[in-house]
Amino acid sequence: MARAGLTAERVTLAAAELADEAGFGQVSMARVARRLGVKDASLYAHVRGLEDLRGRIALLAADEKTLRIAEATAGRAGKDALVAFADAWRDYAHEHPGRYLATQTSIDVDPEPAARAPGPRRAVELTYSMLRGYGLAEPDLTDAVRLLRSTFHGFVALEAADGFGHTRPARQSWNRALDALHTLLEHWPTSDEGASS
């Protein structure tokens, strides 16, 4: 029988908090059960197992991150939207490192909770909408999305690993990277796909 007051949402939130404190790779059913003061078996009334729980953390984080980005970019366009989008991404990664990593990890997510979670779908919509402001269309939109994700994730991953050893503050390099991305997006190279060789 499920413990009174214990829900899939409470289990997920406890696991997400653990991920932020100890690292996403340190989340286990046993550690989450201890955090909630229950036996491991009690969790299985609410989640199917560790992979399901990891997927639920990823969906929770995607919803949270996307909401933050949506609020930051509302009413903005061009460079203002790009900077607000990027800063919201980076701030979320700093504040919730375990949850953030869940959004960047390949996980077999249960279709049922995935269908109820708007975050991943909304994230795609927000990104493409922001980039359309630069006049991009396919296939350039997809290429630009991949460039932004690679840049943002690469930067915050290096920060998380203390990978920037230079004395120049990382924030200054981040700002310059966003300046460079804005310039690139405004002058996106013309695609030669389909041209005969």
Describe the structure in your own words.
The structure is a single chain. The protein has 10 helices and no strands. With about 200 residues, it is mostly helical. The longest helix has 24 residues.
Using only C-alpha atoms, the radius of gyration works out to 19 Å
Distance between the termini: 67 Å
Strand content: under 5%
- Which series of helices and strands comes N to C? HHHHHHHHHH
Mean pLDDT: 91
The helix content, as a percent range, equals: 55-70%
Specify the number of helices.
Answer: 10
Secondary structure tally: strands: 0
Major sheet size, sense and barrel closure: none
Extract low-pLDDT stretches: none
Structural class: mainly alpha
Shape: globular
What's the quick description here?
With 197 residues, this protein is an all-alpha fold.
Features:
mainly alpha, 197 residues
What is the fold's blueprint, element by element?
Blueprint: H1 8-22, H2 29-36, H3 40-43, H4 50-73, H5 78-95, H6 97-103, H7 111-116, H8 119-132, H9 140-160, H10 170-186
